[in-house]
Queue: 2 jobs
Job 1
Amino acid sequence: MAAAGQRRPSLRAVAPVHLLLLMIVVSFGKAMASGTRSSLSIIAFSCDLVAYSFSFSDRFREGSQAAAVGGAPTWTTALQQHVAYFDTDNDGIVTYSETEAGLRRIGLGAATATAAAALINGVIGPKTRPDNATTSRMDIYIENIQKGIHGSDTGSYDAQGRFVQAKFDEIFIKYAKAEPNALNQTELEEMRHANRGSNDYSGWAASKAEWDMLYSLAKDKDGFLQKDTARAVYDGSLFVTLAQKNGGSSGGN
């Protein structure tokens, strides 16, 4: 009987090994009762079966160990963790419906979530799509999410999607004037305009949409976006907090 927490081997996976061993025993029995030439053939065939049975057993053991370790993917960059909240089935791919449902969980209305999800997946999906992918072009592949980074941003993600603390701190050092560790709406607008790249219209639009959404969902009662709150959005932990506040599930990963 398997110990608690230990994965029990599948009978369908183990049975072929036992069957092969039985065939080997039968083969040697036939070899003993046959002539020399047929004996050699049967013995050679039996040796092949032995080799295959051990190979199969090794592959099964490796597969069982991998399954025991399995579960949700482990994402290493802050940007991957940010996006993984929306991956509710933990398959490494965020579909349009997962994005839409995730946005509703964190507090967006149905119409806004539908439009935002279409824009997010429509723009980022093709950029992150592997060459050999067969799924929808709107699917976002988390392992390639760094390819979806837009221009005219704060630089708080580097080119690989890692969080850059110094760049994040710079936002509040430069623009938090009314409160030292918080931004009001006017200060957010000033920050966004200062980060605009020349003729980067898509980057301007993406930056405005992101910060406007964050401010709308996470500002405090005095109309300030606190530094700790803004920091939590970069690794996706804010999404979990907002979903729980709205009575929803905590999302993926």
Job 2
Amino acid sequence: MSSNTSLLTSGARVVVTTHAEDGTSIFHSDRVLESFSPFGPTGSSFAILDVRASVPVNNLEGPTSPQKTLPRVPPAGINFCITNIAPHFSVPMHRTVSLDYAVVLSGEIVLALDGGEEKTVKEGEFIVQQGVNHAWHNRTDEPCRIAFVGVSSEKIKLASGEELGETVIKVPGQ
């Protein structure tokens, strides 16, 4: 991308395949999905690429219409999205009730856990996140783009019986 803001505002091209009635493989769609920037142009942006309500999926059903919301995994489903985190921006501590697979596509990000530990994850590196309370910090001068596949999970149940549920990030104005 030519500038810091272009990655944050650029959409994501998504090519979707399916089957014709006779079973032949065909293209369902080829489109660019716009990014959603709930924290303004200097925050983070998101593009939800596909959401399925349940697993296993029916591969004859088309993808859902993209929503301009924070990515959330349906209670028994999956979510595929990208997140763009602006330079010198932090995403507050939060937890999802999901198993998240992530790959840093560009830039680098600091993954911080509520116990105080941090790891820097760089372009081309991977994350398997198991429903932990976490924050994201982009401490660089370049945007960071991360692709996520979130899979619904059970709530974390502690030995005490306490269950750890989702903690939601507050979007300004909502």
